[in-house]
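Why do we care about 3D structure at all? Because function follows from shape, and shape follows, mostly, from sequence. That is the central idea of this module. The next example makes it concrete: a single protein chain, its amino acid sequence, and then its structure expressed as tokens.
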Amino acid sequence: MNAQDLIDTARMLVADYKGLLAMDESNPTCNKRFAKLGIPQTEEARRAYRELIITTPGLGEYISGAILYDETIRQQKKDGAPFLQVIIDAGIIPGIKVDIGAKDMAGHPGEKITEGLDGLRDRLKEYFQMGARFAKWRAVITIGVGIPSRGCIEANAQALARYAALCQEAGLVPIVEPEVLMEGSHTLSRCSKVTEEVLQTVFNQLYTQRVMLEGMILKPNMVLPGLTCSQQESVDEVADATVNCLLRAVPAAVRGIAFLSGGQSGELASARLNAMNLKFKLRSPTVGQSPSPWALAFSFARAIQQPALEIWQGKDANVSAAQQALLHRAKCNWAARRGEYKAAMEGTGA
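And the structure:
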């Protein structure tokens, strides 16, 4: 492990108001999204879509890193150029999803445990040699009647910490993603309490496993009411709840926080990210100097990709228009990091 390299990579992932593009959907997940739009569920269709994304002109101006799937990191453009080289040439740092998914947790009905630690050391070594410089592991926490349990939270926290330690050993910056899901009828207050408990448990385990916090990125959920909760708080209320939760649970040594979108619309995710950054900006005693102990960035998947996918429809004639939509959402989130996103940007392509 080269500690300075890890610190430098983590810094670059959240530098210049940029964020991460999560394009690490598994093949089954990608196929489901294609099926809804009538796009063929084939390896070639997935390759073509991913080529559309990584060849979007100007993407590197707003995106610092791209999280890839195992199939994606090995693919090539139609002309034979490796995806990895295309991404690097665009000024984007390549990363890789390394967990193998959330499975039902034994003895814990309704809860999941993420698997993939077996053989991970060797896989990380291979990905580093291929050119990846960071990795991602996602744990999922469900809020419901009597859940999440301590057993579920602690098991997932330990797995995240063990993954993170192995990443740093291999020279990869770990993206640590404990996601408290939006699904459910829980209140904003309940989500805040669960998220804080989860984050505190995760960082306790990161300390135990001797993970260097300066060489990692946290990818948490925003604090939100459940999708079916009768009370849906405003953008500013969500921003306040999220920031306050993070201030209580996330050490200042962490290089950056890159929020997941978790099923939010692109516009709403941008507005909430903007509100968080704007509040820090307004509280600052010095203009342009943020009192936040960490950069507040983004690591969005559908919230950036969905409009482009709907425009593309699997047709070559739609590639340019789809790329413009993708770039627009990336730019909106770049603006949100600056506290400069406005709803008027939508529909203008500005």
